[in-house]
Design goal:
The structure is a homodimer.
Chain A lengths: L1 H4 L4 E5 L2 H13 L5 E5 L5 E3 L2 E3 L1 H11 L16 H8 L10 H15 L4 H11 L5 E4 L6 E6 L2 E4 H7 L6 E7 L10 H6 L5 E4 L4 H10 L3 H7 L4 E4 L2 E2 L2 E2 L4 H7 L6 H7 L6 E5 L11 E4 L6 H17 L8
Helix pairs in contact in A: 2-3, 2-13, 5-6
């Protein structure tokens, strides 16, 4: 248990389901109060006048033990009276909001309209729900992922939910990123000299991690961090476990492989974790092959521990990059 | 069944539960498309950033057959996951919003923010829910009932829900009424020369009907209407069936009686309907005693028919007033 005795905190960058799982694992294996999660908000959008933050919510519900495990989003034991009544009124049904989940959207929107920042609301909500890790939205400013497709530029949720990732992707834009600032605490978390590791979770590199890195100052802060930076591949055996990462890589003319992900993060990371299925991947940087598929809470903790052990052994390469 | 063969439409002024019941009865006994309901919006308020219209909703749900009969507000078969989750987040719990009910508030608020008027949203919603009557908010402008009490001036929902009508009442103000305009269709409905009756439902005179009459032009329009105007007493045997009407009358130094209600509407009505329990009430205008307590849908229709028959026999007195 070498990792457990290491001093210092851990920062993880994460997006949706896969990222939330590893974030949950990290939260289970590091001391309380030492984990900071920088979460993608490029998927955020206004729906029915409500501010919905899908990735923040997935991470929050996962770490609070409230997440629905089968569905992959929203709360367990959810009810759907709101959606049924909304449809009866002629409201839009393409984006599903559960009855309990709605409380978070309504409350957050109300607090934001009252002048609170997304960071402040996130801190309040996670505190209330007993989440031990510190959740940091990548920015309190609006950054909105736009997917360039053969059906034209699409707002993220339009691409992801309404069109179920069917359009062919040619690129991405992160609207608002140029002028966005990292949320309070984000740069300081990465600048912490006692930091033990920075982990890029197995989230979609294009849709979950790149929006975070698109916020001015983020990429430099990751490069400058004192800790080893480790990414975990979301591609396992040439496939994405969930979501459109593999489809998108194919559409962009990239090989659907862990190596492509490692290349995507070149210059930013010191080490790379691939799945045991990809143990023979040829990578230009230190790597380790581990079972990365997280089916249970124990899998999450086991992977988190292994990733931190790997990070602890890594030489610093970025100084030369 | 003389009332059924009468030509022309019916207009009813109504507020909460008692009013909604008679409105429902009227909707059952008049031909489809001939009933217009002018509904109090003085109880409307913004809660969690949502526009809540309690009286419009009670009337809508009652006429759509969706109302919870025991609780007296909201929808039957309602769920409470939203409230439970909201409380867990530290949100306010004093005003209960059911999971299905929320759809109406969220959808209405979204449409209003998009530029629709309350009348337009009400028309869409009632059409969608198969409500045959025409529901007209008294005004599309904000009129907000303020209750003057020994605890100071209180916003209506603060008085009515949060403080459960406990403070002692000394008067009422209808904030915004001076500059409010009757909603489109309201004055035209009352000016219809073919009108058969105007019914003031057994709603709270101070909190449900007076806000309607406080909108400039409303009182004159009721006085000028070609049809007989009939009010139904919400006071039965010296008590209010529901709500704070009797308590308020006592606090205002008024006798808690049907006669006090008739006096309240003096100059505005041609006839008055009291409950059989108040058959000996001494009133200065034509009156009839009927069983006014509506326990079943049949009670509602029976009372509606009797009220319309009574109206049909009334001499016009207001011309002299």
């Amino acid at each position: 248990m070498a990792a457990r005795t290491e001093p210092g905190g851990v920062v993880a960058l994460c997006g949706g389901v896969g990222g939330a799982k590893l974030a949950h694992g990290l939260a289970r294996v590091v001391p309380a109060g030492t984990l900071s999660l920088i979460v993608n908000t490029g998927d955020d959008f206004a729906h029915l006048g409500l501010h919905v933050s899908p990735d923040l919510d997935t991470v929050t519900y996962t770490l609070a033990g409230l997440a629905d495990k089968r569905r992959g989003w929203g709360r367990a034991g959810e009810g759907w009276r709101f959606m049924a009544a909304l449809e009866a009124l002629g409201g839009p049904a393409w984006f599903r909001l559960g009855d309990g989940d709605l409380a978070l959207h309504v409350w957050r929107t109300h607090r934001l309209r009252g002048g609170a920042t997304l960071s402040e609301v996130t801190a309040e909500v996670t505190e209330r729900l007993g989440v031990g890790a510190r959740l940091l939205p990548m920015s309190d400013d609006a950054v909105r992922t736009v997917v360039e497709t053969d059906a034209g530029p699409l707002a993220f949720q339009d691409y992801f939910v309404r069109r179920a990732c069917a359009p062919r992707v040619s690129g991405f834009r992160f609207r608002g990123a140029e002028t966005a600032r990292p949320a309070p605490g984000v740069l300081a978390a990465l600048a912490d000299h006692g930091l033990r590791a920075v982990v890029i979770c197995p989230s979609n590199p294009f849709l979950s991690v790149d929006p975070i890195l698109a916020v001015p100052g983020m990429r430099a802060a990751v490069r400058a961090t004192a800790a080893p930076v480790v990414a975990v591949s979301p591609i396992v055996g040439g496939r994405a476990l969930k979501g459109p990462a593999a489809k998108i890589m194919g559409e962009l003319g990239l090989a659907v492989s862990a190596a492509t992900v490692a290349e995507h993060y070149a210059g930013l990371i010191d080490g790379f974790v691939v799945d045991s299925a990809d143990a023979d991947a040829v990578l230009g940087l230190p790597a380790i092959a581990l079972p990365t598929v997280m089916r249970t809470a124990r899998d999450r903790a086991r992977l988190a521990r292994a990733v931190l052990r790997f990070a602890a052994r890594l030489p610093r390469r970025r100084a030369a990059a």
